[in-house]
Structure to design on (224 residues):
């Protein structure tokens, strides 16, 4: 019987690579995406495309209305997506996003009896988000053991797998390319248009462009 994993799939470069790594490790992958009120909704189309192309066992998209609380340039249209790097935690940070995403993934994982959750967080080439750090991941694993029947009664340990957490963007791209990831299917831009074309100036676009350059791999991104 194949081991199961829930894989968080945003439709971006990192999550597609994490999915490829989970499949390479022999997991039956259950992909989970979120319509959370993000302005870059083309990533949801990309997530569906990636899930189909990469042959996941199942793919769900769950609606969470984070745009109803705002507080981020990605969910509040009154806050502009910056076209320059920012000091500290940038305005593209979405309050509690990864906490909520992992909570939903944990719920589905418990139902599936899948003891591994994959998330493509990165602590090297990232934008300073507090919920992308190893400390956060370790704390969530502790929570998972305390908050679930499988953990309390069954003694099961949920593992949050972060295969990209210590890799540079270039190393992520190299690893995904070796595993056959088609990065032309992915959308990373914070301000992508409805067709998935990237702005080329947001923090995510700059990191992505630099990653392909440093990896010496042609960038398949379509920029506006």
């Amino acid at each position: 019987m194949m081991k199961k994993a829930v894989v968080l799939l945003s439709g971006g470069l990192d999550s597609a690579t994490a999915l490829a790594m989970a499949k390479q490790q022999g997991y039956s992958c259950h992909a989970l995406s979120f319509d959370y009120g993000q302005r870059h909704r083309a990533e949801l189309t990309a997530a569906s495309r990636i899930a189909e192309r990469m042959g996941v066992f199942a793919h769900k998209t769950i609606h969470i209305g984070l745009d109803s609380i705002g507080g981020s340039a990605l969910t509040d249209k009154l806050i502009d997506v910056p076209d320059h790097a920012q000091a500290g935690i940038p305005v593209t940070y979405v309050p509690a996003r990864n906490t909520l995403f992992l909570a939903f993934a944990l719920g589905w994982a418990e139902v599936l009896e899948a003891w591994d959750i994959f998330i493509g967080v990165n602590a090297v080439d990232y934008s300073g988000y507090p919920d992308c750090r190893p400390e956060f991941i370790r704390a969530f694993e502790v929570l998972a053991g305390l908050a679930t029947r499988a953990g309390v009664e069954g003694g099961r340990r949920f593992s949050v797998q972060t295969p990209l957490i210590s890799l540079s963007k270039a190393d992520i791209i190299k690893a995904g390319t070796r595993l056959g990831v088609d990065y032309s299917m992915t959308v990373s831009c914070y301000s992508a248009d409805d067709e998935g074309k990237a702005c080329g100036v947001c923090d995510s676009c700059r990191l992505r462009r630099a990653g392909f350059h440093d990896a010496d791999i042609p960038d398949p991104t379509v920029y506006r």
